[in-house]
């Protein structure tokens, strides 16, 4: 970067500013399981129309419009092999299968993300209640919500929409 460009970092997100209206690139630091290290990647920003073209109707409604799938409809209940659950929109690693547990809610639940850098927790005041929404740190995909009624060691229950995730077995990483 030359001396005319500026970079500001806030909460592990870097914003590169170029003079005279040049290209604006935002990066974010996330954990990559395959590399077993932190990596800096471009933040993915697409319009609703772009996401609609790339995703199935259900994926679009849940990840972009903040919908929720019906409980008990996710095929991940049957996944018990070692691997990683990734964001369906951008492939960011989100949860290890070893952190998955049966919560009895009908949605895939995890007691911790693969790294706190890979998800963003933010207030959700929709539906007349206050909850904590969980979104992908790289593409802002709505994943689900986190609650304080999970098992040890964290006491957290990351209640995710299975449609927002894809599973990659350990051998395919």
Mind explaining what this structure looks like?
The chain is mainly β and 173 residues long. The chain folds into two domains: 37 residues, no CATH class; 125 residues, Peptide methionine sulfoxide reductase (Metal Binding Protein, Guanine Nucleotide Exchange Factor, Chain A). Helices cover 8% and strands 37% of the residues. The strands form three sheets. The chain has a six-stranded antiparallel sheet with strand order 7-8-12-11-10-9, with no helix packed on it. The chain has a four-stranded antiparallel sheet with strand order 1-2-3-4, with no helix packed on it. A hairpin with a 5-residue loop joins strand 5 and strand 6. The longest helix has 7 residues. The protein is globular, with a radius of gyration of 17 Å. The two termini are 33 Å apart. The N terminus is likely disordered.
């Amino acid at each position: 970067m030359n001396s005319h460009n500026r970079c500001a970092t806030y909460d592990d997100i870097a914003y590169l500013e170029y003079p005279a209206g040049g290209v604006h690139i935002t990066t974010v630091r996330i954990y990559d399981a395959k590399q077993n290290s932190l990596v800096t990647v471009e933040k993915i920003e697409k319009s609703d129309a772009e996401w609609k073209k790339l995703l199935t109707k259900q994926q679009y409604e849940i990840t972009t419009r903040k919908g929720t799938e019906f409980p008990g409809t996710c095929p991940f209940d049957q996944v018990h092999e070692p691997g990683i659950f990734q964001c369906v929109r951008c492939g960011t690693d989100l949860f290890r299968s070893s952190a998955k547990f049966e919560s009895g809610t009908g949605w895939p639940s995890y007691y911790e993300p693969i790294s706190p850098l890979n998800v963003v927790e933010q207030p959700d005041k929709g539906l007349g209640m206050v909850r904590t929404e969980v979104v992908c740190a790289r593409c802002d995909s709505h994943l689900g919500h986190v609650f304080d009624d999970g098992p040890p060691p964290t006491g957290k229950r990351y209640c995710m929409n299975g449609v927002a995730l894809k599973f990659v077995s350990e051998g395919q990483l």
